[in-house]
Amino acid sequence: MKLLGHPSTINTRKVLWTCAELGLTPETEDRGGGTASTLDPAFLAINPKGLVPVLVDGDLVLTESNSICRYLVAREGRADLLPADPAGRAGVESWMDWQATELNSAWRYVFMGRVRKHPAFSDAEAQAASVAEWNRLMTLLDTRLVATGAYVTGPQFTLADIVLAVSVNRWEMTPMERPDLPAVSAWMSRMADRPGFRSHCRNAIP
């Protein structure tokens, strides 16, 4: 098994954390994040999308970080992280999809402007709108965690917690105005004893 990506990228980190939970240690190859290009012909032959991470497991080549996480958990038979029953699985996957579509879309502009310093994301009004939407969605997550009293989908830690926590770590580290969200803070602290959380989420990388 081989994972192509870079440990500074949020999507690679969620896969690395999942591997840590599963006791897997795939061979890694640096791609993206300022290392080897994701646009050279050799990489595009593996993933025409030109994005990381990419998992190579025998003859299987898999892209999209959340799909890779789902595959690895199913491969290892870890129904605690992704339930086998349709309703339980859908509950976890719905929050994973929310992270990939709604939450990540909200933070892109302000993160690229204030952390990555990309000139295409320097408009102050657009950054402010990004901050407002990001905080709105984070408040929604806080309300959810108040309701569950533990983890995103209920009393048990699942894949939804992994993929959302890396985005929350980014929210905590981006220079911007943030509301006080006690349930989110308690949830992040609740995961502090997980080695994958310490190595690949709360690891001083936004």
**What percent of residues are in strands?**
5-15%
| Biggest sheet details | 4 strands, mixed
- The quaternary state of the protein chains shown equals single chain
Q: If you consult CATH, what is the topology of the largest domain?
A: Glutathione S-transferase Yfyf (Class Pi), Chain A, domain 2
Q: Uncertain segments of ≥5 residues (pLDDT<50)?
A: none
Radius of gyration over alpha carbons? 17 Å
- The number of helical runs is 8
* N/C terminus separation: 27 Å
CATH architecture of the largest domain: Up-down Bundle
Molecular shape:
globular
Give the topology string: H per helix, E per strand. EHEHEEHHHHHH
Number of strands: 4
Judged by helices, strands and strand pairing, the structural class is: alpha+beta
Instruction: Provide the number of structural domains.
Output: 2
Overall pLDDT level: 97
Please give the share of residues in helix: 55-70%
Largest sheet, spatial ordering of strands: 2-1-3-4
Q: What is the CATH top level name of the largest domain?
A: Mainly Alpha
GO molecular function, one term: transferase activity
Domain GST N-terminal: 1-80
InterPro entries: Glutathione-S-Trfase_C-like, Glutathione-S-Trfase_C_sf, Glutathione_S-Trfase, Glutathione_S-Trfase_N, GST_C, Thioredoxin-like_sf
Pfam families: GST_C, GST_N
